[in-house]
Structure formats: structure tokens, C-alpha cells
């Protein structure tokens, strides 16, 4: 299966980076190389570092950018980008792009185990290394599973689903995506099963986030990206659910916050100055035209800040 990923908010994201022909840019989540290719086309003497932790993505983006001498492809998690860029002597940089979340290839490729629409081994590891979703559902206590489902899936039925998983695995190990999806479906109230969408959606999201440590990596990646931006450099981040967006929104707000003295102080004594400014106050959402072409983009949000 070819690694294809249709980038969401594509034109808006590339425009937001204000790419200079001689600039240095990092695509921290290269995927199939859509964003990287667009950046590379705009470079003359500049450099582009494309990073991804998925070996399938690395093969795809390497092939796609093979004719661009400005391109360097490196397998790593985007949270490690500062170390990678320093190792390759590419700091400071003019722009960083992060397209957070699972790609269409990963969702649609059954063998990766991200989706409840196809039967496949219960995996969900973006890097294909480490603890899998199968490991979690077969070893954690119901309390630990409930916490993951509640925190990362924001599912009010987390306790019932977790206990249903424990009960099912006492009969036999939970090995596949459809096996787990049916267990979840049987563990929620009938009213929930009648609601639009599959009742397993939030649990699958929660397990994927837990398996890949996504929120911790996002927090680390934001700090890493901002640390290597030069003044005037831009950080563009696309998120796909509220947990990710909240982290990005709050981190960028903290960089943009200046004086924190009480308003009744006649002069500033804290000495704090903003480190960045927002390009879009509320971020950008997909257009109606894009939503028609790609329904998966509905929850996407683009936030961009400029380092001062």
C-alpha cells in the first residue's frame, strides 16, 4: 500500500510559513512528504529537514524528495528535532511545521491496527517499536485502562468499557481490532450504540495516544521547535482533536504573554516580555470546500506563532 496522506489546510499552512528561498525549514511530521515537497519546491539555496518516526513514511518521503538537493530525511520523533537539527548543523531555523496525529495511510492500512473498520492485529505503534495496543488491553488493570480511556478519549463510559475489556480477556486474549471494537460495543449502554459513529472511536483514539505517548511528545516537540527558531521564525502546528489543540493553544499563549504584574502596579516589576506573537488569534479551521473533499479534516485546526 502506497503511503499517501492528503494534508489538511495545505495551502494555508505553506503560506503561513512565509518560505524564503534561502531559509532553513523543518517538517517534523513528514508523512508521505506532501508538505515537505511543497517546501522543497520553494527553496533555492535553503535546506529542508524532513523527520518522521514511521519507517514507511521515511521510505516514502525519501523517494518523493530524491531529486531535491536541499532535502535531508531523518528517522526520529519530532520531539527530538532540536538534537537532530543541531547534529546536522541546521540551527537556527526559519520555520517548523508539525502536522500532528495519525495519517490517512496509517488509518487505512489494516495491518497497522489503527482502525476499527478492518480486522487486523491490535498494534497502533507509529514507530513499529515498543509497547503495542495489544499489550495495553491485555495487561493493564481496569482502573489503568479506564484512566487512559477517560483522559485521552474523553469518554464518559470509560469505566464500563475498561471492565468489559477485563471480562473479555479472561476468556481469551484480545488480539485484533474488530475483536476489541465488538467488546467496546457490547460494554456501552444501548443508547450509546444508537448514537452516530462507532462507540469504539474514542477508545481507539485513547489507546493510540497512550501507545505513542503523543501528548508528551507534542509538549516536548513544541518546546524543541521554538528553541531552535531564529527571531522572525515561524512555528505552524496542525492538530486534529481538542486535547492536542489545547496544548498548542496554551503553549503559544504562554510564549505570547508579556508583563504579569497586577494591573494596579504603576510600572512593570516582573520584567517579562512576550517571546512570540500569534499569526491567527483563533487559529484556522478548514473551509467548507475542504470539508466536502475530506471529511476527516473537520476537527483540524492550524495555529501559527512568530518568534520575536
From TrEMBL:
InterPro entries annotated for this entry?
RsmH, SAM-dep_MeTrfase_MraW_recog, SAM-dependent_MTases_sf
Q: Which domain of life is it from?
A: Bacteria
Task: Please name one Pfam family that this protein belongs to.
Answer: Methyltransf_5
Q: Which UniProt keywords apply?
A: Cytoplasm, Methyltransferase, rRNA processing, S-adenosyl-L-methionine, Transferase
- EC assignment: 2.1.1.199
What are the recorded Gene Ontology BP terms? methylation
Q: Where is the protein situated, by its record's location annotation?
A: Cytoplasm
Report the leader peptide range: none
List the GO molecular function terms. Answer: methyltransferase activity
Q: Where does S-adenosyl-L-methionine bind?
A: 33-35, 52, 78, 99, 106
Q: What is its main location?
A: cytoplasm
Q: What reaction gets catalysed by this protein?
A: cytidine(1402) in 16S rRNA + S-adenosyl-L-methionine = N(4)-methylcytidine(1402) in 16S rRNA + S-adenosyl-L-homocysteine + H(+)
What is this protein's function?
Specifically methylates the N4 position of cytidine in position 1402 (C1402) of 16S rRNA.
Q: Which family does it belong to?
A: Belongs to the methyltransferase superfamily. RsmH family.
Read off the NCBIfam families from this record. 16S rRNA (cytosine(1402)-N(4))-methyltransferase RsmH
Descriptive protein name: Ribosomal RNA small subunit methyltransferase H
Gene name of the encoded protein: rsmH
